[in-house]
Design a protein that fits this description.
Layout: H1 7-10, E1 11-16, H2 19-32, H3 40-43, E2 50-55, E3 59-64, E4 67-73, E5 78-80, H4 82-87, E6 94-97, H5 99-106, H6 113-117, E7 122-123, E8 132-137, E9 143-148
Parallel strand pairs: 6-8
Antiparallel strand pairs: 1-2, 2-3, 3-4, 4-5, 6-7, 8-9
Length: about 160
C-alpha cells in the first residue's frame, strides 16, 4: 500500500527559500492554521533557513534544521507532519475516534462517520468540510493520523 521513501530516488531538488518566499509561506500556514500563531516562531524561526524539498509526484516538503514540518501536494494546502502534530497537539483542529476504529485506521482504512459519532468519539468544534485535522484515539495522548474532513461536523 505504501512505498518506502528513498532519498536518492524520490527527491528531485532541494533549495533554500528566499526570505520573501519564506514570509509568504509563513503567512499561508498561519492563515490555514490560526491556532499556530502563538508558537509560529518556534515552528518556523525567522532566522533559520527554510529548505524546500521537491519530490516526484508533485510533493513539496518544508524543512527547518533537517526536520520535515509540512508537506504539500501540487499547490494545495500545507499538511503538518505527524511529528509536528505530536509537538503541538493543540495548534491544529482535532477529532477523536472510538477504540474500535483505532486498529482499522492504523491498518489504512478511511474514517467513517460512525467512528466519529459513537460513544467514545468526540468532535470538539464545528469544522467545515475540507479541513485538515489531527486524528486522536480514545484514551490515547498522541495523534495517530492526519486527516482531511470530507464533510462538515454538522453533516456528520
Amino acid at each position: 500500500m505504501f512505498k518506502k521513501f528513498n532519498i536518492k530516488e524520490d527527491i528531485a531538488t532541494r533549495s533554500l527559500v528566499k526570505s520573501s518566499v519564506q514570509r509568504n509561506i509563513r503567512s499561508k500556514i498561519l492563515e490555514q492554521y490560526n491556532r499556530l500563531e502563538p508558537v509560529i516562531d518556534e515552528v518556523l524561526p525567522k532566522k533559520s533557513s527554510l529548505i524546500l524539498v521537491k519530490c516526484h509526484e508533485h510533493i513539496n516538503l518544508l524543512t527547518v534544521n533537517n526536520e520535515i514540518l509540512f508537506f504539500q501536494h501540487f499547490d494545495g494546502p500545507y499538511y503538518p507532519t505527524l511529528r509536528l502534530l505530536h509537538k503541538y497537539p493543540h495548534a491544529f483542529p482535532r477529532v477523536q475516534v472510538d477504540k474500535g476504529a483505532t486498529k482499522r485506521i492504523l491498518s489504512g482504512a478511511n474514517i467513517m462517520c460512525p467512528g466519529l459519532t459513537s460513544k467514545g468519539a468526540r468532535l470538539e468544534e464545528a469544522l467545515p468540510a475540507n479541513t485538515i485535522v489531527g486524528v486522536f484515539a480514545e484514551g490515547k495522548e498522541h495523534a495517530l493520523a492526519i486527516g482531511l474532513t470530507k464533510m462538515s461536523t454538522d453533516d456528520m
